[in-house]
């Protein structure tokens, strides 16, 4: 080969070598069937299909959201047009008739309670406030002797209490601003039983959660202050498995219910929790009389059966008695004869 032909040959061979190397690289980059390539599972295929459908329906979803917003706007407009007062809540509140009855929670027992009971008292007061706000005949609600642990707990856990409406929260004792002759202390220890509520009076509920540790305390306080006292007519309408002492919010709610229905029994059974095992007194009397009758029947059956057993044990006739006596005498004589 001549010297002129040699460079051309070398160049052509280099080009061929580069082409072969690039082809090999492309082949190595392409995944071979069965080497490093795994086919998609059914679950992955379903996910891909769902994702594709989701992307395709994006515009449709936007359109549906727009239609929903328009529909809600039309519904709100229709409600505004149908209710001249604006909305149902305002219309209901206008039908409320405020009672002149004053209902006081006496919080002067703060020093007698531990923090756990103070928190329970706070919750019961919250319940009373909420129920009075939604009642058809709300009372004039007073919280007196407010301070100490209770106020501190309310400041820490319920800062919104300072904005409560339709409630008179006072640090003073109720006797300082309400006439003594207008006061009636509600206590289960009182011998006096309420028949009706006098809306010109102020009824006091003892703000004491003590789990019956201080029995008769509210009654004693009412007597010491020379205040009238009474208990709700619970025993006239309700028979309970548990004690007659009710939670503060239960007493409060029963009074609200009575002001609406003017029916003590309905008020009691609407408010009292099931755990109290409350039963109407007439049904309780019926059940007790039924129990007595069944007991009498059982006693009668027992006496009859005992008489039958005694009759079985007795000899059937006097002749048998004579025979038994003779046999016994013969046995005795035989045994006495010496052998």
From TrEMBL:
Extent of Basic residues compositional bias: 61-73
Domain SAM-dependent MTase TRM10-type as annotated: residue spans: 88-279
Basic and acidic residues compositional bias, start-end: 14-35, 283-299, 309-329
Residue ranges with Polar residues bias: 330-339
Domain of life: Eukaryota
Entry EC no(s): 2.1.1.221
Official protein name in the record: tRNA methyltransferase 10 homolog A
